[in-house]
Protein: Homoserine O-acetyltransferase
Amino acid sequence: MKSRRVTTALWQAQSAGSVRPINNAAPTSIRRLSVAATGASPLILRTKTTTTTTTTTTTPPSRQPPARYLHTSPHQRSEAASSNPAIKFPCLDALETRSANLEQQAQAQAQQASARSDKSGPEPSYTVGATQTYHSRGEPLLLDHGGQLHEFDIAYETWGTMNADRSNVILLHTGLSASSHAHSTPENPQPGWWEKFIGPGLALDTDKYFVICTNVIGGCYGSTGPSSIDPLDGQRYATRFPILTIQDMVRAQFRLLDHLRVDKLYASVGSSMGGMQSLAAGVEFPERVGRIVSISACARSHPYSIAMRFVQRRAILNDPNWNRGFYYGRVPPHVGMKLAREIATITYRSGPEWEQRFGRRRADGSKPPALCPDFLVETYLDHAGEKFCLTYDPNSLIYVSKAMDLFDLGHANQQATATRRAERLAASSSSQSSPIPGDGATCSLTLPDRPYEEKPDPNGGSPLASALSNESPSPGSQHQSSNPQTPQPPADLVAGLETLRNHPVLVLGVASDILFPAWQQREVAEALRQAGNKQVEHHELSEVQSLFGHDTFLLDVNGVGGQVRSFLG
Structure:
């Protein structure tokens, strides 16, 4: 009876002119109906999307039951139909408009591709500027978790001059989303992401050193990644691309060094994910690396950073346009990608900096509050997402960020990886089939039978928590060899870093960094010392010295660049 009364109310409301049947549903999935004529409560009905276009004409009130899918005509949304006007969402309108434009572009590109009989579809526009490319083929690159790349490209750029014995080479590693364009070149004069750190007399002095920077495998700026073509079938890898590790990226880079006939690096230098690679290069190729610089990084990923990257990936995976990774030639998951970048940006900067930079100021205090970007900090995040969402491949973000999560230089992980690789190599040498193991992913969408409970430390507390509760270092403090905040590194990590005991290592951290907190760099330095390394330099920039958080390595030419220049000599 209740259902019949609602139907009758809608029918009466339609006759009174409050609502009308929908012939061309808007892309929006939910519409709110205000049935003012009958006094009925507002209803929420789902609508279906259609591309049919019709012309609506005014007809006399009909006695036929109304159509199932209804919406309120814009000009009928008056004050009389609702207690308050509906809030506008220009930010969502913009996203819907972009989706429609991208759909049109994809269709146009598909038509052009069909006319050319190009089965690979339109090329993505992720590469930025001219690079050199090394193509590896002949010997497959075996990956840590069972996959392989039969052939691959490495995009790279160089600065400075390599000396006769090739002993002045520095390999510069990138962060998660950076290209090989660390500094401008004659072929690409655009400023690079480390423009003020590379050049004569700078941190990476090109009067002394020959600097090489690559785009990592898994990336989308010229190196082989998920958006690349699988040479075996001519189709894009998408999520058929194999799982990567930081060590896999480093091994691919050393294939490039082999090609350039560089037997040993003067130094391996990197920040953020690049700092992980820098340490991994020394562990994987101890005889081929001289000095090591690791800035704002760690020797094993920790739960907080893993969690933040997981949420970023979920934002992309839950965008319907992601299509399980097979979106090439279609509308990309730009909405999820934008949200992922906004989340990441929160971790890249610091609260104190934003307090000074934005405070609680709104973009336009003369306008009523809005649910779209309103505060200055919201507009900043929105802009960061906009800049990024169509310039980086979402699948690359998924794969490269997962490699960061898997990073662990502990002895046990190294041994397990070595065992897997040896077994796979033996199987390939004996021509035996060696299937790639399944990913083992599960998801039930159900609550556990027993609620999660915090497990107390059997020793009565957390060594790290008690260490972090101590007083912060003084503003001028840099060397932290005996700082009470230094956590006791696990024995497994100490054992894993023993291969670096004879390498000069610079470890640099930033107190305002929330993505790779400064205690993680202290852990690296202390683990190296306990492993027998007597050539460890550890410096930490206090919040007084830098409020830029994790992004300090991109911005602080004096604090970061000065320490690097001094260490390299």
Remarks:
- Residues 1-79, 116-125, 466-484 have pLDDT under 50 and may be disordered.
